[in-house]
Automatic annotation (TrEMBL):
Protein name (record): Protein pafC
The WYL domain, residue ranges: 157-224
Pfam families associated with the record: HTH_PafC (PF19187), WCX (PF25583), WYL (PF13280)
InterPro entries: CBASS_pafABC_assoc_protein (IPR051534), PafC-like (IPR028349), PafC_HTH (IPR043839), WCX_dom (IPR057727), WYL_dom (IPR026881)
WCX domain mapped to chain residues: 248-320
Domain PafC HTH, first and last residues per copy: 16-138
Length: 339
């Protein structure tokens, strides 16, 4: 029986070949010394394609100040090792060290964000985050500053809520709603989601006998009870934080066209009328307090037209902020469905 012919690796298309070449150079530099067969196995191509690519790399470079290619302007390899032993060793490379790097301050900011993510329960012990942090430190133009991320009260509350969701236990807590009203609540936690920098819990509220949204940083006195969460598989859990209600307030606003997608969850319908280069639409909100948050998040892009109660609320809020200048204001009312 004659031996089967070796299986041929299909040739790369032009776009794939470009991606392959762009990936091959840093791979060879990282490996320092690598056999052709090992490189071929790594990229899933034939040994011949690796050899051809290496020869192409050896004729590539960056022209110097004269506009012509001098010996030091080209990549160079150890030709003896390549031709005699089928081993690739790049002995001179160009342009790679000129690639832009993150500054020490930029790297420190990104590392701080990774430290915050690592502190979340679901990311505990994440090797991917640890590896990325190490790469940022190694790739920065200078040693990044050492930062420590302090845990906020909301972070601890978020961890408790996650534990309750994971264990299927009911939650009891004090909640401060947008109107400044305190009330003790007992809920079946169903889902955790976020809107911008804020975290929300979607839960079945035993007081309201319905699903409600609760902003994590407005919860206090949290206690995970021994009571098990009921079966809510037959209940529709809204995909968005905002759900329409017959008691909602309808607010007419003029909004910049590019900002309209950011208000999609609050649109009363799909009708939009162009007025002076902007789109006039109607929003549906649980109460007027939430309108301030929307306007603050889109400065100069949203103008409240009606009703008067909405215009007055936003104007009073802006006036109060201006009166406090140059101090800061933390009037951050939520857009939640709990009322």
């Amino acid at each position: 029986m004659s031996p089967k012919p070796a299986r041929r690796t299909p040739a790369l298309r032009a776009p794939d070949r470009l991606v392959f070449l762009l990936s091959l150079v840093p791979y060879l530099l990282d490996q320092r010394v690598v056999e052709v067969s090992e490189a071929a196995a790594h990229f899933g191509v034939g040994a011949t394609e690796i050899r051809d690519a290496v020869k192409l790399i050896a004729t590539s470079g960056l022209p110097g100040a004269t506009g012509t290619y001098q010996p030091n302007d080209l990549f160079d390899i150890d030709w003896d090792s390549f031709e005699d032993d089928d081993v690739i060793v790049i002995v001179h490379h160009v342009a790679i060290d000129d690639a832009p790097r993150l500054s020490a301050r930029e790297a420190a900011a990104l590392i701080a964000g990774l430290q915050y993510l690592s502190a979340l329960p679901e990311n505990a012990g994440s090797t991917a985050l640890a590896a990325l942090t190490a790469k940022l430190r190694a790739g920065a133009s200078a040693e990044p500053s050492r930062l420590a991320i302090a845990e906020e009260a909301a972070d601890a509350t978020l961890a408790e809520v996650r534990r309750a969701v994971a264990s299927g236990r009911q939650l009891e807590f004090d909640y401060l709603n947008a109107r400044g009203e305190h009330r003790r609540r007992l809920v079946d936690p169903l889902r955790i989601t976020s809107l911008g920098a804020d975290w929300y819990m979607q839960a079945y509220d035993h007081l309201r006998d319905d699903v409600r949204n609760f902003r994590i940083d407005r919860m206090s006195g949290l206690r995970v009870t021994d009571g098990a969460v009921a079966d809510h598989s037959g209940r529709t859990i809204p995909e968005t934080l905002f759900q329409a209600s017959p008691d909602d307030l309808e607010v007419v606003v003029d909004v910049a066209p590019e900002s309209l997608p950011l208000l999609a969850d609050y649109l009363a319908d799909s009708t939009a009328t162009e007025v002076g280069g902007r789109l006039r639409v109607t929003l549906r909100l649980a109460h007027v307090h939430g309108l301030k948050r929307l306007v603050a998040g889109l400065p100069g892009l949203v103008t409240v037209i009606a009703p008067d109660i909405a215009r007055e609320a936003v104007a009073a809020w802006a006036t109060a902020g201006l009166a406090a200048y140059p101090g800061t204001s933390d009037d951050r009312d939520p857009i939640d469905s709990e009322a």
